[in-house]
Amino acid sequence: MIIKRLILVLLCVFAFMAKSVSASEHTQNLQNMLTPTQMKEDINAWQDFVNNTHPDLSIRIKNTTAFEHSLTAFKQSITKPMRVNDFLSQFAQFNSQFNDAHMLVFTSSQKGLAKEVIKKEGLFPFEVTVNKGKVYLASLLGGSETSFAKSELISINDQPINAIYNTLITRMYGDTVKHRERLLSDKFALFYWLFVNKTEHFKLEIKQGKSSQVIEMQAAKVLPKSFNSKTFEQTFKFEILNQQQALLTIDKFWWQDKERFYSFTENVFKQLKEQHIKHLIIDVRNNGGGDDDMWKQGIVKYIANKPYQHTSKYTKKIIAKYMDEGETEGDVVTKVFDRFEQPVKDEPLKFNGKVSVVVGGYTYSSAILFANTMQDFGFAEIVGEESAGYSWQTGGIQFFTLPHSKLKAVTPRFYLARPSGTQKGLPVTPDKELKDDVLKPTQLIDKIVDEFNTLAN
């Protein structure tokens, strides 16, 4: 009996230890030591992964020779052991050079890491907006309102904000500087913890108007807003605004249960028909992408009045798991895309009114392909601010875990020209450019509604 009890106690202890290890796996991995040989093997493994997956680095990296030289110099500079966190800090400086939010080297799970950090130390206590090299407070971490909203950050713990900005923006991924700033706005608290300072106390110098002040805050033990999972109802929203106009907000083109999304949009277009709505506003300002099927079957099906396509030409790397008959693994293929989606004939819920698609700095990936298609085939007027990402998009992202550091690498396997074949190297440019305020997003919608009312009257 005593032996059985002892075994039971030991099992409980081991279970608790296993749970504790699991609860700190991300932060613990960052503290693991790497030898120079291990780090160089990780870099070589990453290079092999990219060479076997990416169609052409010169698509986004202007000087690939200089890039290769800097990568070689990085490897040669590694002469002493270092922790995974420090290795990441050095390796992540290439993220900004990729000029592509679909290509990065980072921790295995940003959300998982953030969850661990807020349980122990906490994170920088504010959500921020990063714009043109400056950092502004937006809300308390997690999204609660603060009287310091729109204050400009001057320093954190006596370190000038421009030095912090330079450290973080260099390690942020994204198509353009503007795109990296938008993404850094969401991830500032975690990036600060990773690459600047793991502290639980913050002394902030801020400026409101012409007056400056110093405030002191403890680290916040809540998740940054961008890491909070949204419900279906928070992600996909529909609202009848008035007798003539309605707003459909789509914050991503992905949901595990696609049929639920398709039922939702079918009901949207049913209401549009029943309510005799003349103007549909589709807001994808905060849509970071997903699956093209979602917008083709869930939205464009009810709007398209002629054949359409999401790209006119593609370049792809042939990799084993996506290889078609007659293709050779490792080849890079560039082809004209001549397949068109056909409009649904006699669609009973066809919407024939005006469609406005609202884009902005966060619009990305599949959401950019959606905006391109709607614009290039005349299905909608594009309004808002230009996208921070490029209108010619990479995609088909693949994942790889570096063998020693366990860092995660992401890279695309194809590159798509927009349907018109124009605007290479440019963002999605609105037909009607309207300034957006990320802290007051409804103002832009109100302006679109008012302009339609004015024209209608």
UniProtKB/TrEMBL annotation:
Gene3D superfamilies: 2-enoyl-CoA Hydratase, Chain A, domain 1 (3.90.226.10). Coiled coil: none annotated. SMART domains: TSPc (SM00245). Keywords: Signal. Residues 1-23 form the signal peptide. It comes from the Bacteria. Pfam families: Peptidase_S41 (PF03572). Residues 210-435 form the Tail specific protease domain. This is S41 family peptidase. It comes from Pseudoalteromonas spongiae.
